[in-house]
Amino acid sequence: MTQNVTDVIRSRYGKLTKKQRLTADIMLADPESMAFMTLRDLAAAAGVSEMTVLHTCAALGFENYNQLKYEFRRYLTLKAKVDIQEQCGYPNMEVPSYELSEPAKLMAQICDEEAQVSRGFFESVGPVSLLHAAEMIVESRVTLMAARGVSMQVADFLSMRLAIMGLPAVVMNTEQNDSLHAALPLLGKGVALIAISMPDYYIMTTKVCEFARRQGASILGLTDHLKAPIAQYCDLLLTAPTATRLFINTIGPMLSLANLLSAAVNILKSRHAGKKFDAPVQFSKLFSGDAE
pTM for this one? Predict the structure, then answer.
């Protein structure tokens, strides 16, 4: 297909029936959701039957609904790559010339600012909220983590901690289409999603939260602000400051938050020790001949 899916819809819009146009309007208004939306949900959103949606797909030149969703996923992947380049996603963060006359003084100021941020974080973190978040993880069948960019470092760290404790965890890189769509089918009741989102807030991470909410998963958000885009979908939100003078994010406080969360998980897990958490122990017994 040479045209992207939104261009195809616009080019054939005039030949659609009234009900088919209602369906097309939903597609054009929210292409991000179309990557995940089920046939039933789209029909409900447009106020039409599922058969009308299928007829709309045919009128637009698609063999079936899955092919349409595939084209929306392809469109979003290409759009994300273009957006990163247009926004200069990895700019050279040069220090202004007026700050360079006394480098040692500048470094001292930065160290002091980082120390103040860390002190403020540890003074404000809530033990009860951490234990509540840990409970969401311990009680879930599996924990999924959605992140991208610098947030992936936090996700990988937390995933490693959960693995050590015998808790199943899957990391989803929301910038990578294969990683994203391999993990989406896991979302549902009994599953905990940890969404890690820091400025710039990546839309696909937010959309994963929206999809997880529809699927009935419990959602824990780790972000820098109570009004971050993922907040509206989260059952619980934990925050850590990320603003820094030289870069868009500082990872220190967020890693500290992940470290405290893993400690809270260990506390609750230790109180409910049992076969649910002993997979690493049972696996190690395979090498000693002690397996049950």
Answer: 0.71
